[in-house]
Specification:
Blueprint: H1 2-34, H2 36-45, H3 51-71, H4 75-93, H5 114-129, H6 136-139, H7 147-163
Length: 164
Protein backbone atom coordinates (compact mmCIF):
# COMPACT_ATOMS: atom_id res chain seq x y z
CA UNK A 1 0.00 0.00 0.00
CA UNK A 2 2.84 2.40 0.83
CA UNK A 3 4.44 1.88 -2.58
CA UNK A 4 1.10 2.61 -4.30
CA UNK A 5 0.73 5.84 -2.32
CA UNK A 6 4.33 6.78 -3.18
CA UNK A 7 3.51 6.13 -6.85
CA UNK A 8 0.42 8.37 -6.63
CA UNK A 9 2.42 11.09 -4.86
CA UNK A 10 5.10 11.04 -7.57
CA UNK A 11 2.46 11.00 -10.31
CA UNK A 12 0.69 13.96 -8.68
CA UNK A 13 3.96 15.91 -8.39
CA UNK A 14 4.78 15.16 -12.03
CA UNK A 15 1.35 16.34 -13.19
CA UNK A 16 1.53 19.45 -10.98
CA UNK A 17 4.98 20.27 -12.40
CA UNK A 18 3.89 19.75 -15.99
CA UNK A 19 0.70 21.76 -15.52
CA UNK A 20 2.29 24.68 -13.71
CA UNK A 21 5.27 24.65 -16.07
CA UNK A 22 2.93 24.77 -19.05
CA UNK A 23 0.96 27.65 -17.54
CA UNK A 24 4.16 29.59 -16.85
CA UNK A 25 5.43 29.02 -20.38
CA UNK A 26 2.11 30.07 -21.88
CA UNK A 27 1.91 33.25 -19.79
CA UNK A 28 5.54 34.18 -20.40
CA UNK A 29 5.16 33.59 -24.15
CA UNK A 30 1.93 35.63 -24.30
CA UNK A 31 3.57 38.52 -22.44
CA UNK A 32 6.61 38.37 -24.71
CA UNK A 33 4.48 38.32 -27.89
CA UNK A 34 2.25 41.16 -26.64
CA UNK A 35 5.38 43.24 -26.16
CA UNK A 36 7.34 44.09 -23.09
CA UNK A 37 6.21 47.72 -23.31
CA UNK A 38 2.55 46.62 -23.05
CA UNK A 39 3.41 44.70 -19.90
CA UNK A 40 5.25 47.72 -18.49
CA UNK A 41 2.26 49.95 -19.28
CA UNK A 42 -0.10 47.46 -17.63
CA UNK A 43 1.97 47.40 -14.45
CA UNK A 44 2.43 51.18 -14.48
CA UNK A 45 -1.34 51.75 -14.35
CA UNK A 46 -1.35 50.03 -10.94
CA UNK A 47 1.63 52.11 -9.81
CA UNK A 48 3.74 48.98 -9.47
CA UNK A 49 7.21 50.03 -8.31
CA UNK A 50 9.95 49.34 -10.85
CA UNK A 51 7.41 48.31 -13.49
CA UNK A 52 10.09 47.78 -16.14
CA UNK A 53 12.11 45.46 -13.90
CA UNK A 54 8.93 43.63 -12.86
CA UNK A 55 7.83 43.16 -16.47
CA UNK A 56 11.17 41.82 -17.66
CA UNK A 57 11.57 39.73 -14.51
CA UNK A 58 8.17 38.09 -14.83
CA UNK A 59 8.63 37.31 -18.53
CA UNK A 60 12.09 35.79 -18.06
CA UNK A 61 11.07 33.94 -14.89
CA UNK A 62 7.94 32.47 -16.49
CA UNK A 63 9.76 31.30 -19.63
CA UNK A 64 12.81 29.86 -17.88
CA UNK A 65 10.88 28.66 -14.82
CA UNK A 66 8.30 26.93 -17.02
CA UNK A 67 10.99 24.95 -18.81
CA UNK A 68 12.73 24.12 -15.53
CA UNK A 69 9.48 22.84 -14.00
CA UNK A 70 8.65 20.70 -17.02
CA UNK A 71 12.00 18.92 -16.85
CA UNK A 72 12.01 18.91 -13.05
CA UNK A 73 15.14 20.97 -12.46
CA UNK A 74 15.42 23.40 -9.52
CA UNK A 75 11.81 22.58 -8.69
CA UNK A 76 11.85 23.89 -5.13
CA UNK A 77 13.48 27.16 -6.19
CA UNK A 78 11.00 27.72 -9.03
CA UNK A 79 8.08 26.76 -6.76
CA UNK A 80 9.15 29.40 -4.25
CA UNK A 81 9.51 31.89 -7.09
CA UNK A 82 5.97 31.17 -8.29
CA UNK A 83 4.63 31.65 -4.77
CA UNK A 84 6.42 35.00 -4.42
CA UNK A 85 5.34 36.11 -7.91
CA UNK A 86 1.68 35.36 -7.17
CA UNK A 87 1.82 37.20 -3.84
CA UNK A 88 3.28 40.23 -5.62
CA UNK A 89 0.67 40.05 -8.38
CA UNK A 90 -2.12 40.01 -5.80
CA UNK A 91 -0.49 42.81 -3.82
CA UNK A 92 0.19 45.12 -6.77
CA UNK A 93 -2.47 44.42 -9.39
CA UNK A 94 -5.44 42.84 -7.61
CA UNK A 95 -5.61 45.04 -4.52
CA UNK A 96 -8.50 47.00 -5.99
CA UNK A 97 -10.72 43.90 -5.72
CA UNK A 98 -10.83 44.30 -1.94
CA UNK A 99 -12.57 42.96 0.11
CA UNK A 100 -11.56 39.46 -0.95
CA UNK A 101 -14.93 38.11 -1.94
CA UNK A 102 -15.92 36.43 -5.18
CA UNK A 103 -19.50 37.73 -5.26
CA UNK A 104 -20.99 41.18 -5.74
CA UNK A 105 -23.70 42.41 -3.37
CA UNK A 106 -26.35 41.10 -5.76
CA UNK A 107 -24.82 37.60 -5.75
CA UNK A 108 -23.17 37.76 -9.18
CA UNK A 109 -19.58 36.69 -9.70
CA UNK A 110 -17.22 39.64 -9.64
CA UNK A 111 -13.95 37.88 -10.33
CA UNK A 112 -11.02 37.96 -8.06
CA UNK A 113 -7.62 36.57 -7.50
CA UNK A 114 -8.51 32.94 -6.86
CA UNK A 115 -6.48 31.98 -9.95
CA UNK A 116 -3.40 33.64 -8.45
CA UNK A 117 -4.05 31.92 -5.12
CA UNK A 118 -4.29 28.53 -6.88
CA UNK A 119 -1.01 29.10 -8.75
CA UNK A 120 0.67 30.31 -5.57
CA UNK A 121 -0.48 27.20 -3.70
CA UNK A 122 0.84 25.00 -6.51
CA UNK A 123 4.16 26.81 -6.16
CA UNK A 124 4.06 26.22 -2.40
CA UNK A 125 3.34 22.53 -2.96
CA UNK A 126 6.35 22.15 -5.24
CA UNK A 127 8.53 24.15 -2.88
CA UNK A 128 7.65 21.87 0.03
CA UNK A 129 7.46 18.52 -1.79
CA UNK A 130 10.05 18.93 -4.54
CA UNK A 131 9.86 17.50 -8.03
CA UNK A 132 9.15 13.87 -7.24
CA UNK A 133 10.78 10.72 -8.58
CA UNK A 134 10.48 11.68 -12.26
CA UNK A 135 12.64 14.81 -12.25
CA UNK A 136 16.17 15.95 -12.91
CA UNK A 137 16.34 17.07 -9.28
CA UNK A 138 16.11 13.41 -8.27
CA UNK A 139 19.36 12.64 -10.10
CA UNK A 140 21.29 15.03 -7.88
CA UNK A 141 19.69 14.07 -4.58
CA UNK A 142 21.98 12.46 -2.06
CA UNK A 143 20.97 9.02 -0.98
CA UNK A 144 20.42 8.78 2.77
CA UNK A 145 22.58 6.09 4.33
CA UNK A 146 20.77 3.16 5.88
CA UNK A 147 21.22 2.32 9.54
CA UNK A 148 23.61 -0.51 8.64
CA UNK A 149 25.76 1.78 6.50
CA UNK A 150 25.94 4.33 9.33
CA UNK A 151 26.96 1.59 11.80
CA UNK A 152 29.64 0.33 9.40
CA UNK A 153 30.99 3.85 8.94
CA UNK A 154 31.08 4.43 12.71
CA UNK A 155 32.83 1.12 13.28
CA UNK A 156 35.38 1.86 10.56
CA UNK A 157 36.00 5.33 11.96
CA UNK A 158 36.47 4.06 15.53
CA UNK A 159 38.92 1.30 14.46
CA UNK A 160 41.10 3.79 12.60
CA UNK A 161 41.19 6.09 15.64
CA UNK A 162 42.19 3.25 18.01
CA UNK A 163 44.91 2.09 15.62
CA UNK A 164 46.56 5.51 15.82
Amino acid sequence: MASFLRFLQNLGLLLARLGLGGILLLHGWMRWNAGVQDQIDYLTQFRTPYAEVAAWGSIIFELVGGVLLIVGALTRFVGLGVLIEQILIIAYTNWYKWPPTLLNADGTYKGGYEYNVALGLLGLLLFVMGGGAVSIDRLFRRKKPTAEEEDDELAEHSTTRTAM
